[in-house]
Amino acid sequence: MTLLVAGDIGGTKTILQLVEVNREESKASVELRKLYENRYLSNDFPDLVPIVKKFLEEASEKLGEKQKPEKACFAIAGPVVNNIVKLTNLPWIIDAKLMENELGISQISLINDFEAVGYGILGLNTKDLETLQPGEPKSDTPIAVIGAGTGLGQCFLIRAAGVIKVYPTEGGHTDFKARSQLEFDLLKYLKKLHNIKRVSVERVVSGMGIVAIYQFLRDSLFATESPEIGDQIRQWEKEVGSNQITVDPGAVIGKAALEKSDPLCEQTLKMFIEAYGAEAGNLALKLLPYSGLYIAGGIAAKIIPLINSGSFMEAFKDKGRMKPLLEKIPVHVILNPHVGLIGAAIRASNL
Asked: Where does ATP bind (predicted)?
């Protein structure tokens, strides 16, 4: 048994867990037992060290004895170089080596938040997943992970010498490839709107992509915009660039699509889901992940009924002669919102 601290560090909030880990080297999975968890407003602290100290004091009081974790891993939305990261939305510079000395924790690792999701795959069970395609699983083959949220993350896992390692990528920044006349029109719209020569797939398959698709369909007069939805989207458009955003346009559009109450929102999500499925299929062709392709991110789990409608998997498999290969790949949606924290704990256990 090993005592660890796992963290999900964001510009708004920091979530920390004290975790007891039982890891069997012969197995890909690990047994995690959460002992204590708490959330903190990141802006209330000058850096991460005071948050961890406060957390360990609270955990010790709650559990009745002093808690001395051996290792820690913190998942952070940002590039990590030499175990050091400068946060984008906070005036923090986190240095793992300095933290080890200040906290008395022997080993601390900093990893990108999507890399943490990759490790988190190893700690999930069936209740954490919605299976879109059972496929024909094969051990000792890659695992692929794709996740649309604020951006579009992609990574893959490979087993080597009995150890599974996560490799992050920048696949979300590859070119968006239109597959229909409507998507060609969307591509031209985005180039003109942003005055750019190329459009990355992240501009379409992400939270901002949902809004962009809606704006394109609205401006193209695809369907009449409802006053209720239109007022909220225009309110958000006015607030863009300010410090006070009162509307989450992606959530507004997604809710209307789920309720089937607005044709414009329904078509928006249809285009989004098809583009998402197509990009997942592209990733699958590059890696042939017969150990599974996992859909992560904050969006898919919220729109499971729409993902299950069929268009996601149709677009995923629509690869001509390669369709039989893609039919053999297991495809799952991750339902557990704490997969990143699970991954941080697993990564810490590997230190």
From this structure: 7-12
